[in-house]
Amino acid sequence: xxxxxxxxxxxxxxxxxxxxxxxxxxxxxxxxxxxxxxxxxxxxxxxxxxxxxxxxxxxxxxxxxxxxxxxxxxxxxxxxxxxxxxxxxxxxxxxxxxxxxxxxxxxxxxxxxxxxxxxxxxxxxxxxxxxxxxxxxxxxxxxxxxxxxxxxxxxxxxxxxxxxxxxxxxxxxxxxxxxxxxxxxxxxxxxxxxxxxxxxxxxxxxxxxxxxxxxxxxxxxxxxxxxxxxxxxxxxxxxxxxxxxxxxxxxxxxxxxxxxxxxxxxxxxxxxxxxxxxxxxxxxxxxxxxxxxxxxxxxxxxxxxxxxxxxxxxxxxxxxxxxxxxxxxxxxxxxxxxx
Length: 339
Fold this sequence. Notes:
Heat Shock Protein 90, 3 domains, five-stranded antiparallel β-sheet, five-stranded mixed β-sheet, 10 strands
């Protein structure tokens, strides 16, 4: 009986019945922007019945403040091109907004645009799910970054409090014995060797936990680090900050910027042919842009721990990494927003 009931309906009548029983807004607007068809969904979305709309209302009257935002897409569809865009639409009772995905299809007859069809779907659930996933991802990245810093601090404490202190004690003992037994060259050689190890350990500790950031600030700490590595590896490293306003950001963010620079320099230095490195850090609250240039082509290993560390921090800030390379130059552009 149900089949006979519906099969007896005209196809147009059935189509209208279906359109009135979906949550998405379906409408037709002519080229003069007058509504010629609307389904029942407009009541929930705009508080307008189809009887109030069809042949009675213009699209600017319906959209109100949204009209200017939608106008580029309206002009686009009236020029004969399909339009697809997202839009937040206030709920009529003022309880919030719906996230929508709108599609405008041109109605073309003999190369003339007569109007356009509208389909607007509610994607609020997908948007909320997207936000939840982004929040969960950011929380995971935060834990990874904090774990990395905690591990480095623990390693530094172990090196300084155990290895370094014991080496220093050995050095003192050797120096004491050397004073007692003049003429034993072995003591002097071992003492010098231990001294070199202590210097290297202290340098390693400084790289692992650059506490100079907390004492001197990000700019001075980064300059000292670049100068030290340049001299150690016989490279010219030119590091510039456009503004000292970057010193006003949080310590956590300073560490992230330093770590990105640190890993970029390491990646570049590992390229044997490189001689000159240039890095500029531009900060305009809340935007950070790092431009890193090397005077040779760098074969970037995206599975390396250095690149992974950079990508982790950039992803945390929802930023992006761009790479430009030719036979004689490599440029990395990293941009993100501190939130």
